[in-house]
Amino acid sequence: MSKTAVRRSGLVVVIAAILVATFGIGAGSALAAGHEFNLSVYHGINGRSLGLSKDLPVDVYVYKDGGLLTVLEGFTFKSRVYVEGLEPGEYKIMVKSQELDAFLPSMTVGPRDIPGGVEVQMHAKLSEGKTPIIKVKVK
Q1: Which contiguous run of DSSP H or E holds residue 133?
Q2: Predicted structure pTM score
Q3: What structural domains and CATH numbers belong to the chain?
């Protein structure tokens, strides 16, 4: 495994650890009872499509119930995070490009109420017009 692959794997582990520490992990039975939700996030945008670096590093700002909950720094192309046992509430996600030093309005999600007992999947991708977006599915 190359040093770059090891660093990327390490970054995903660090991001997952930050999410777990920030949101907390609950027992699987709590999700079944509808008290928590699970989240999966995938960064699927190759920055070269936008004239930027392939990794397209971004910082992800997570707000819960109107307050800043955490910032995930350096989320890069092909990174994936899965977190279980998040508390329901009103969430808003804002994405800031490190290279452009600017928030990307097309990638803002929410504020939206997320109930317990669901699976939320977020996929950063390019729209047909090459606009960066976050596709959200709730199951």
Answers
A1: strand 132-138
A2: 0.74
A3: 3-138 (2.60.40.2890)
